[in-house]
Specification:
- The chain is of the alpha+beta class.
- About 40% of the residues lie in helices and about 10% in strands.
- It is built from 14 helices and eight strands.
- The protein has a three-stranded antiparallel β-sheet. Strands 3-4-5 form a three-stranded antiparallel β-sheet, with no helix packed on it. Strands 7-8 form a two-stranded antiparallel ribbon.
- Helix 9 (about 225-240) packs across helix 12 (about 295-310) and helix 11 packs across helix 14 (about 330-340).
- The protein is globular, with a radius of gyration of 23 Å.
- The chain starts with 17 loop residues before the first helix and ends in a 28-residue tail after the last helix.
């Protein structure tokens, strides 16, 4: 849980300096600019000036940090390019023969490059990508803030599922053990488990628990480097849906994902019609293919979601900072909240267009009751 914001210092606000964000290193042939810190909290003063908690301290800025770049491969490596010293001097001075002499001049040159980087990243981070949907980052943060507003949800006539689903006491926190309460948890995302389906899930509980115990699921999606290692783990989770001798009655990948996600929230993705609307289609990461098994389909969805999370670490830090309720939500869950609110950002997300992969999906959640 993020600690309370420290007392506001008395010094006047100052613009965010590039050195607050980036560190620069040179190996003689190339310059590497690295993101110095991952911002984890955003607040405003009474005067409306944005603040950011960074490196354990607090710095007031005069720009909106929510507009930092989401186009990073990870939180440590920001940008790297290979320009010779002569090329870089030519770019800065306008003539290749110029030699940067004093330390002050070299410092100004580095600052100029860093400012260019900040401007580029600022221009790129106004949106967050969820599959084929491109959503303004500030809009996505508002969705997360409203969805996780616990005090409001507890009294609202149309509450969201946080913290009901995410903090539901299913009887155990063991990631590889499924209790009866865990099997009923999809109901808290407005996907009720019918009695016959409940008995069917009980019958495959041992197989699901074995799949959940795979150590490869310990790694958060964004940190998975080798897709080949992830695929068998995800495939095993949904294999029960493709076996006619074991498939629980009335259970599809949507229901099963909502059972499994709570046990492995950082590595098991959630699925519904709106996730499909974002990730499946001719202009989406996963192409439509008739006859595809549930296991194969969920592997592709997981890989596409993994790419979006891994490529936008700063954007997901902003979403994490927008969570109003207690505790931490995984990036996988944050993406699900944004995908559900976006409704796919395309006509293919309409209520009447049913998915064609695997089998018919569950009658997920009405927009105001999830």
């Amino acid at each position: 849980m993020v600690s309370p914001l420290p007392q506001v210092p008395s010094e006047p606000p100052r613009p965010l300096r590039p050195s607050d964000l980036f560190a620069e290193e040179s190996d003689g042939n190339a310059v590497s600019v690295s993101l110095r810190t991952k911002f984890v909290e955003f607040k405003s003063t009474k005067a409306g000036q944005p603040w950011a908690r960074a490196r354990g301290g607090v710095a007031r800025t005069s720009i909106a940090l929510r507009r930092l770049s989401s186009g990073l491969g990870n939180t440590r490596a920001a940008l790297a390019w290979g320009r010779s010293h002569r090329q870089r001097r030519a770019r800065l001075s306008g003539r290749a023969s110029h030699r940067v002499g004093s330390a002050h001049e070299r410092h100004l040159a580095r600052q100029a490059r860093l400012i260019d980087t900040v401007r580029t990243m600022t221009a790129q981070t106004q949106d967050i990508r969820v599959g084929r949907a491109l959503i303004p980052l500030e809009t996505a943060a508002t969705w997360v803030r409203e969805y996780t507003h616990t005090a409001h949800n507890l009294v609202s006539e149309h509450p969201y599922a946080f913290p009901a689903y995410d903090r539901f006491d299913g009887g155990t926190t063991e990631p590889s053990r499924l209790t009866d309460g865990d099997l009923l948890a999809p109901g808290l995302l407005n996907v009720p488990v019918k009695i016959r389906s409940f008995y069917g899930l009980q019958s495959v509980r041992g197989r699901l628990e074995e799949a959940l115990s795979d150590p490869r699921l310990d790694t958060p999606l964004a940190e998975v480097a080798d897709r080949e290692e992830l695929r068998p783990a995800v495939h095993a989770l949904y294999g029960v849906l493709d076996d006619p001798t074991t498939r629980p009655w009335g259970v599809s990948g949507t229901t099963l994902s909502k059972v499994l996600h709570r046990k492995r929230p950082h590595s098991v993705v959630l699925h519904d019609r709106w996730v499909r609307a974002c990730y499946v289609g001719d202009d989406a990461p996963v192409p439509v293919e008739k006859g595809r098994s549930w296991a194969d389909y969920m592997v592709l969805i997981t890989e596409a979601i993994r790419d979006d999370i891994a490529n936008q670490p700063v954007a997901f830090s902003v979403l994490q900072s927008a969570v109003e309720g207690p505790g931490h939500l995984s990036d996988v869950r944050l993406l699900d909240i944004v995908a559900w609110n976006s409704k796919g950002d395309a006509p293919a997300a309409s209520w009447d267009e049913r998915p064609r992969d695997g089998d018919s999906f569950d009658s997920d959640h009405a927009p105001q009751t999830r």
